């Protein structure tokens, strides 16, 4: 858990994707997040958290459904959204964080 705190406590925005291997929409989100990373590069960090392997973390952030994305800036949660968003929407959120 402390490693997670270190990872989200960065100057750059950190997008956390809570997902599960059995989740269809999560699989649809994967290539979209890759496009976001390709476009923004070092401007954003993207973390993928498997809710089945990290139940305590998912519980701490009250993740009830997957995929759920949380955006952190300097360790503070600044945005949250469940479901699949398009690349443009995700980039817009990151750029306004």
Give the gist of this structure:
By secondary structure, the chain is an alpha+beta fold.
Structure report:
With 97 residues, the protein is α+β, with helices and mostly antiparallel strands. The two termini are 24 Å apart. The chain has a 4-stranded mixed beta sheet, covered by helices on one side. It is globular and about 30 Å long. 41% of the residues lie in helices and 26% in strands.
Q: What can be said about the biggest beta sheet?
A: 4 strands, mixed
Uncertain runs are none
What count of helical segments does DSSP give?
4
The total count of strands amounts to 4
Based on CA inertia axes, which overall geometry fits? globular
Report the average pLDDT across residues: 96
The helix/strand order is: HEHEHEEH
Strand percentage:
25-35%
The amount of helix comes to 40-55%
Q: Compute the CA-based radius of gyration.
A: 12 Å
Q: Give me the secondary-structure category.
A: alpha+beta
Distance between the termini: 24 Å
Strand arrangement within the widest β-sheet reads 2-1-3-4
């Amino acid at each position: 858990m402390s490693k997670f705190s270190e990872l989200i406590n960065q100057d750059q925005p950190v997008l956390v994707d809570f997902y599960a291997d059995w989740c269809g929409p999560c699989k649809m989100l994967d290539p979209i997040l890759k496009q976001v990373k390709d476009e923004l590069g070092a401007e954003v960090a993207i973390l993928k958290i498997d809710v089945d392997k990290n139940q305590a973390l998912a519980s701490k952030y009250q993740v009830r459904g997957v995929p759920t994305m949380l955006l952190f800036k300097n360790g503070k949660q600044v945005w949250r959204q469940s479901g699949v968003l398009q690349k443009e929407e995700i980039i817009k959120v990151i750029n306004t964080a």
